């Protein structure tokens, strides 16, 4: 079957050859063809056994048969005779195409390989026949051979096939054949390199559109309107480069010499042209045949591209055509290169040695096609081989690109345009641009090319054009084209940087799909491994700006890497995904770009140029903002804002309107990253709206601020922040807006403000058209609407900028505006749904703004600001506040601050009304805001204007009465704030009724609190559980759980009433004290012990704090001391009564109450002491029967403390320094107090005056203490008499000890002769009896006797009879001994010199005063039991005998003495007799 198909191919061709070989000259060929035909048609072909063992190259044929069959075909091809060659070529093409030939065609191979190679070479030789059809058959045959799967061409055979097509393209006279040859070449090269990549011959040929691959991208752009006659003469020979002094050219020459040296040392003669080239192919030692084939083809093309034609290119067009074809084919290979080609060291070396050398020779050509192809090939190297060719690219980029780019004065137009197109194409791949900067600019190598920086600067020079004073050959239209392309490149660079930044930071690309720019391809996957110094992963999320701005540490890391690179080989290629490198790129290019865009935008009116400039600004702001480069960002934003010409609207043109549009677009697209740049944008928006409104005929805001205050007051209730806008009145609006159109500086506070210069008539004529152009901008309000899409940080920056712009508008003295202020209200509405944490940051900014605006000296502005704040408050309160948040409180704080700071009565009144409106309309939603609300009213309560106080109280009264449940349903502190607010109103000095009503409201609060409304009405509050009055649930500590135990609620209320109880106004303090104690009495039984402790410490005890201010003098001389004394007395009674009434609950607080009482007793003020003693007695009489033994121990302990602390101190009287004698001639006994005081203080000596005042103070203290101790003793007697049965043995002995100590102290004072003498000398100044403490002594001893005698009678628990008897005997001896000394001998016990008591003196009085004590003592002695008396008779008998001899001034003493002798001593004496 296969033979029949093969015969259909071979036999017709052989028959045709045989027919044409009838000539004698070719008879041998004809005979051979006839023999082969017979062989093919013979049914019995039997080759030799040896031949049949060898596999042939023809399908199903042995090698022997294959040689027989193919021999006439090869011979026919070799005849160079067209009639033989055509059928032979046709047969060859069909044999290959139909797969009848198989094996490898390689002259260096075996017999079958050589046979096939001979066949292919013979076919290649037919290219010189000169016949068009034969040429086409050769092309078809060679293409089939190269692309065949079964037949594989290698080595020289493959090169012959490629060179044959190459020659046919050059030499064929038929255009179709040329095109076919070129297309076939492309397909051959593509399949060769694809097989090399796959390492297999089974790779199928894919369709390749040769026209698309071969058309240089730059040519179509260059050959246009400015097409020039192209020179075909090579303008520069590489050898001539040495003549150049340019560093780039010298670098290129050194590189060329280096390449030549390497080639000569490695393979001599390889770079020389001539016949020896084919022999060089054998020297290429590559084991893999596919790689060797690709290498040979690539090298061959490089050599072909380096063939230099004659100086006159027109004289040798074929050479130039071949060069161009070779360059085109190289371009295709590079653009379609695979992984092996890009990474194999052998191929990379070939690129360096052959292709780069070719580029060096061809880059200097003035032939545009050659130059364009060189640029295109270089672009492919940069795109796909930059990692491996770092050093080479560093040499060729300046030579090929920068050399042309930087030539501004005398450039080759088409070359310059080609380079500009090359750069624009380069910027499509952002990674390439980043790596160019990283490897050639950022590197620390001092010999670095600085490619990126030079490229940007070259583009800047091109965009700026040739200076006017420099002669140039560039035509005007050509210069305009180059400027335009340079601008496109600059914009493309910025867009490229922006895309790369967006990719790394995962920012949404600001360029929409409508843009014509290509998408970023990223880094090539086929590139060789690169040295990555910075591999930080980009931060994810929409808020990547904050992470990018925090890369300060990354910068230092990058700098460290930069230093390390200086020590590494320059062959290391660096790649980066860290966006920090962008900062250094921006540093290198921002200034040239800003200059290029600014100059062109200012000078040009070309719409395309303007659009490019604006797009450049837009991209630059995007990149600088994204990288948080504030200075650079602001430079672009400020420049762009100035180009809007809004500060000088009379000069507005269409390009200025376009700038405004870009400003709006930037706000919309880059709002998350422009940070402080918002101020410039919002300033432009403010000015734009101002012009727009004025152009529409709207009245200026200043007219609103000019409204008279009286008119403003009339409209307070219906005030709105929407300014009145008049209707459009037609042409007259132009005149109305003229003031807004005057020239001003960009930094002026207001548009047209403070500008004296007018506008010209020409400018006036343009105003109408300017206003029409403003309509093209559209609605800028979308900036504020879109604010809700800003991220959490950007919205704060936006609000800061808006507040700053608004403040600038308000501060403009000539033309204040409220546009931004109204927008603040709007953005609050738009951003109401943001999370609380973000809202808190926003409001921190707005709060300061409203405080400043609310305190403005311009009353209208302040009113407008407060009104706006009121509207915001309404919006905020419409949103329910979550638990544990206090944003409402923070939001309402500006009201409080302005209320405190503002000096304008109108503002303070407006705040009251606004807060009232907010509360009454949104009371259901008020939570934490109550705190600030009450702070506002508290501040109002202390206001200096009566109307504000009365107005605020009416509002607070309504709130407390009608909305009390809302007040206490949030925090516990809210109720406290309410109480403090009411207390503040009680202190008002304007109206007594307000104070009383406020106290009444406090009472109402107390009732509601006690009734449990606070928890019944607010079950959601996170606080202690609701009290359930009447249910005696027990808690863990045993206390009833139903107590109204809200410390945080009761204490502020009670403390407020406590303070009011000592208000100077009688009605207030009376009402407050009644309500205070009434509340405690009525509801105190529900309080827990812990609450009572706080009540006593913080409320009740504070009632007596003011008592410290009572003067020690006569209170009746001071009205204030009088009413304070009265209140202290009343308060003490109420406290004691309260303690008694709820003793069961608060009995553990007895010590605190006793401490309070004793503190009064210890005061050096007799009136206060009386209050304390009275309270003590009242407490004992009312609650004593409820005291436990421990309670009584506390009582007697505090009583002991009081007696000890109030002991009179006479030590200062005994001090010699204080001894002051009475003036001579003054009767001490007869002088009055006034005379004595006058005599003592009449001395003009300052020392004596000081001593006199000190002595008077000491005497006053002694008298006060003496009185206190007497009062205490009497109170002790009363308490003892009432509760004698409840006092334990121990407690009574404690009382005995302290009273006995008082008696002993008094006796010692009374027996001190020196002291008594000094007291006599002081005379009437003392106003004390002699002895001074006689009453205190006698009373104390009598009470001691009473204690001991009653103990013997009552015999309480733990009673010790012997102990009591011992104490009693000793006490009686002590009393009788001292009496005997005084009454009988007249000598003091301390053996002082005798002093005589004159008749009628106080001695009789003293003895009479001591008589009751002696009587009681003798009775106690007589009451001793017989055994006890007999046991102690030896002690008593001398004393009784001495009494008999004493002079008594009381008959009762003698009677009792007689009874004792008769009843007790007598019987004992009689028994002893």
- In the sheet with the most strands, the strands line up as 1-2
Q: Give the overall shape.
A: elongated
Oligomer: single chain
**Helix segment count?**
66
Could you estimate the helical fraction of the residues in percent?
A: 55-70%
How much β-strand is present in the residues?
under 5%
- Termini separation: 183 Å
Report the count of strand segments: 4
Q: Which whole number gives the mean pLDDT?
A: 75
Which structural class should the secondary elements be placed in?
mainly alpha
Q: Return residue spans where pLDDT drops below 50 for at least 5 consecutive residues.
A: 47-53, 215-245, 266-279, 511-555, 565-569, 707-744, 748-759, 1015-1044, 1111-1120, 1216-1243, 1386-1400
Rg estimate, integer Å:
60 Å
Largest sheet: 2 strands, parallel
Overview of this structure, please?
With 1473 residues, the chain is an all-alpha fold. 66% of the residues lie in helices and 1% in strands. It has 66 helices and four strands. The strands form two sheets. A two-stranded parallel ribbon has the order 1-2. A two-stranded parallel ribbon has the order 3-4. Helix 20 packs parallel to helix 23 (476-505) and helix 65 (1433-1444) crosses helix 66 (1451-1472). The chain is elongated and about 205 Å long. It starts with a helix and ends with a helix.
């Amino acid at each position: 079957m296969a033979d029949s198909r093969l015969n259909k191919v071979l036999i017709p061709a052989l028959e045709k050859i045989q027919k044409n070989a009838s000539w004698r000259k070719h008879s041998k060929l004809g005979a051979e063809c006839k023999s082969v035909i017979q062989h093919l048609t013979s049914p019995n072909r039997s080759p030799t056994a040896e031949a049949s063992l060898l596999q042939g190259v023809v399908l199903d044929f042995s090698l022997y048969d294959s040689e027989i069959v193919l021999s006439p075909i090869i011979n026919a091809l070799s005849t160079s005779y067209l009639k033989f060659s055509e059928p032979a070529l046709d047969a060859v093409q069909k044999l290959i195409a139909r797969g009848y030939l198989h094996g490898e065609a390689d002259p260096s191979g075996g017999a079958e390989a050589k046979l096939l190679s001979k066949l292919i070479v013979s076919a290649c030789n037919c290219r010189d026949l000169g016949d068009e059809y034969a040429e086409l058959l050769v092309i078809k045959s060679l293409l089939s051979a190269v692309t065949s799967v079964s037949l594989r061409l290698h080595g020289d055979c493959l090169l012959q096939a490629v060179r044959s097509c190459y020659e046919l393209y050059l030499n064929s006279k038929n255009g179709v054949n040329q095109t076919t040859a070129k297309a076939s070449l492309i397909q051959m090269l593509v399949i060769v390199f694809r097989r090399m990549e796959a390492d297999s011959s089974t790779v199928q040929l894919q369709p390749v559109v040769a026209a698309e691959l071969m058309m240089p991208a730059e040519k179509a752009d260059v050959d246009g309107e400015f097409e020039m006659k192209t020179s075909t003469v090579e303008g520069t020979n590489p050898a001539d480069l040495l003549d150049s002094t340019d560093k780039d050219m010298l670098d290129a020459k050194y590189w060329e010499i280096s390449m030549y040296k390497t080639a000569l040392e490695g393979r001599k003669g390889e770079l020389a042209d001539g016949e020896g080239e084919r022999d060089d192919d054998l020297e290429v030692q590559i084991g893999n045949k596919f790689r060797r084939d690709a290498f040979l083809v690539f090298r061959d093309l490089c050599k072909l591209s380096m063939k230099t034609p004659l100086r006159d290119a027109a004289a040798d067009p074929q050479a130039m055509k071949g060069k161009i074809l070779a360059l085109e084919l190289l371009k295709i290979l590079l653009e379609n290169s695979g992984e092996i080609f890009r990474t194999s060291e052998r191929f990379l070396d070939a690129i360096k040695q052959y292709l780069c050398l070719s580029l060096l020779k061809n880059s200097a050509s003035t032939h545009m096609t050659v130059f364009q192809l060189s640029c295109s090939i270089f672009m492919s190297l940069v795109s796909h081989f930059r990692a491996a060719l770092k050093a080479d690219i560093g040499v060729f980029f300046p030579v090929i690109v920068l050399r042309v780019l930087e030539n501004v004065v005398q450039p080759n137009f088409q070359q310059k345009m080609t380079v500009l197109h090359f750069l624009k194409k380069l910027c499509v791949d952002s990674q390439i641009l980043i790596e160019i900067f990283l490897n050639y600019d950022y590197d620390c190598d001092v010999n670095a090319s600085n490619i990126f920086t030079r490229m940007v600067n070259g583009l800047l020079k091109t965009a700026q054009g040739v200076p006017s004073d420099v002669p140039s050959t560039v035509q005007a239209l050509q210069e305009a084209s180059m400027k335009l392309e340079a601008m496109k490149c600059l914009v493309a660079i910025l867009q490229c940087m922006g895309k790369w930044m967006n990719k790394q930071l995962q920012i949404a690309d600001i360029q929409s799909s409508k843009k014509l720019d290509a998408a970023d391809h990223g880094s090539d996957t086929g590139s060789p491994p690169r040295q990555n110094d910075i591999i930080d992963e980009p931060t994810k999320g929409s808020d990547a700006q904050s992470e990018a701005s925090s890369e300060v540490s990354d910068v230092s890391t990058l700098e460290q890497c930069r230093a390390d690179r200086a020590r590494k080989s320059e062959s290391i290629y660096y790649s980066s995904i860290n966006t920090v490198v962008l900062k250094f790129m921006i540093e290198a290019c921002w200034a040239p770009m800003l200059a290029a865009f600014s100059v062109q935008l200012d000078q040009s009116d070309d719409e395309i140029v303007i659009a490019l400039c604006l797009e450049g600004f837009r991209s630059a702001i995007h990149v600088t903002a994204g990288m948080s480069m504030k200075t650079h960002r602001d430079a672009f934003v400020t420049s762009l804002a100035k180009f809007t010409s809004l500060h000088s609207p009379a000069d507005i043109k269409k390009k200025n309107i376009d700038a405004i549009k870009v400003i709006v677009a930037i706000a919309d697209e880059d709002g998350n990253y422009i940070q402080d740049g918002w101020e410039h944008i919002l300033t432009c928006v403010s000015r734009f709206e101002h012009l727009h409104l004025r152009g529409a005929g709207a009245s200026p805001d200043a007219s609103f601020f000019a409204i008279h205050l009286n008119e403003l007051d009339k409209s307070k209730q219906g005030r709105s922040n929407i300014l009145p806008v008049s209707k459009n009145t037609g042409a007259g609006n132009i005149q109305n807006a003229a003031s807004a159109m005057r020239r001003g500086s960009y930094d002026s506070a207001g548009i047209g403000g403070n500008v004296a210069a007018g506008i010209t008539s020409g400018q006036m004529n343009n105003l109408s058209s300017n206003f029409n152009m403003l309509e093209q901008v559209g609605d800028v309000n979308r900036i504020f609407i879109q604010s809700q899409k800003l991220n959490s940080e950007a919205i704060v920056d936006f609000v800061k900028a808006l507040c700053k712009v608004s403040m600038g508008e308000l501060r403009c003295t000539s033309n204040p505006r409220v546009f931004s202020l109204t927008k603040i209200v709007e953005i609050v509405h738009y951003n109401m749904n943001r999370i609380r944490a973000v809202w808190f940051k926003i409001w921190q900014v707005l709060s300061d703004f409203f405080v400043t605006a609310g305190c403005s000296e311009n009353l209208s502005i302040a009113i407008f600001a407060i009104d706006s704040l009121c509207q915001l408050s309404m919006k905020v309160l419409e949103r329910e506040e979550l638990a544990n948040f206090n944003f409402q409180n923070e939001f309402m704080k500006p009201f409080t601050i302005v209320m405190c700071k503002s000096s304008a009565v109108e503002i303070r009144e407006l705040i009251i009304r606004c807060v009232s409106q907010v509360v009454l309309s949104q009371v259901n939603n008020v939570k934490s805001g109550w705190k600030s609300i009450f702070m506002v009213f508290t501040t109002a309560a202390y206001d200096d204007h009566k109307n504000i106080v009365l107005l605020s109280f009416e509002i607070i009264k309504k709130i407390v009465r009608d909305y009390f449940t809302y007040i206490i349903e949030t925090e516990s502190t809210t109720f406290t704030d309410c109480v403090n607010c009411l207390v503040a109103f009680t202190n008002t000095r304007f109206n007594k009724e307000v104070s009383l009503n406020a106290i009444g409201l406090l009472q109402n609060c107390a009732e509601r609190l006690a009734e449990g409304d606070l928890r019944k009405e607010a079950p959601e509050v996170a606080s202690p559980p609701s009290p359930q009055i009447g249910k005696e649930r027990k808690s863990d500590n045993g206390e009833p759980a139903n107590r109204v135990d809200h410390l945080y609620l009761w204490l502020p209320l009670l403390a407020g009433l406590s303070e009011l109880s000592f208000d100077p106004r009688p009605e207030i303090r009376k009402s407050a004290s009644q309500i205070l104690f009434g509340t405690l009495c009525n509801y105190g039984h529900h309080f827990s012990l812990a609450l009572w402790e706080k009540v006593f410490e913080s409320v009740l005890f504070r009632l007596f704090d003011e008592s410290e201010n009572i003067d020690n003098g006569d209170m009746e001389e001071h009205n204030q001391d009088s009413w304070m004394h009265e209140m202290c007395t009343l308060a003490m009674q109420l406290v004691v009564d309260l303690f008694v009434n709820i003793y069961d609950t608060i009995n553990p607080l007895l010590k605190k109450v006793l401490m309070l009482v004793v503190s009064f007793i210890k005061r050096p003020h007799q009136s206060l002491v009386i209050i304390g003693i009275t309270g003590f007695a009242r407490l004992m009489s009312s609650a004593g029967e409820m005291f436990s033994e421990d309670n009584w121990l506390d009582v007697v302990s505090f009583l002991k403390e009081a007696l000890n602390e109030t002991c009179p101190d006479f030590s200062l009287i005994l001090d010699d320094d204080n001894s002051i004698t009475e003036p001579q001639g003054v009767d001490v006994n007869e002088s009055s107090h006034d005379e004595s005081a006058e005599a003592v203080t009449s001395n003009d000596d300052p020392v004596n005056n000081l001593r006199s005042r000190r002595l008077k103070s000491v005497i006053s203290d002694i008298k006060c203490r003496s009185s206190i101790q007497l009062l205490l003793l009497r109170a002790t007697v009363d308490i003892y008499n009432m509760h004698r049965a409840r006092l334990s043995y121990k407690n009574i002995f404690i009382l005995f000890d302290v009273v006995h100590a008082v008696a002993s102290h008094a006796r010692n004072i009374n027996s001190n002769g020196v002291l008594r003498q000094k007291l006599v000398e002081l005379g009437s100044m003392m106003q004390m009896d002699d002895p001074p403490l006689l009453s205190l002594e006698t009373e104390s001893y009598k009470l001691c006797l009473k204690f001991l005698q009653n103990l013997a009678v009552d015999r309480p628990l733990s009673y010790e009879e012997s102990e009591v008897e011992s104490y009693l005997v000793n006490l009686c001896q002590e009393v009788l001994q001292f009496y005997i000394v005084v009454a009988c001998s007249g000598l003091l016990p301390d053996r002082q010199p005798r002093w005589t008591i004159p008749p009628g003196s106080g001695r009789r009085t003293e003895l009479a005063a001591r008589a009751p004590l002696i009587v009681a003592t003798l009775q106690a002695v007589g009451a001793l039991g017989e055994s006890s008396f007999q046991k102690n008779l030896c002690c008593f008998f001398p004393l009784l005998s001495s009494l008999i001899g004493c002079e008594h001034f009381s008959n009762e003493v003698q009677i009792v003495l007689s009874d004792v002798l008769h009843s007790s001593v007598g019987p004992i004496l009689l028994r002893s007799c």
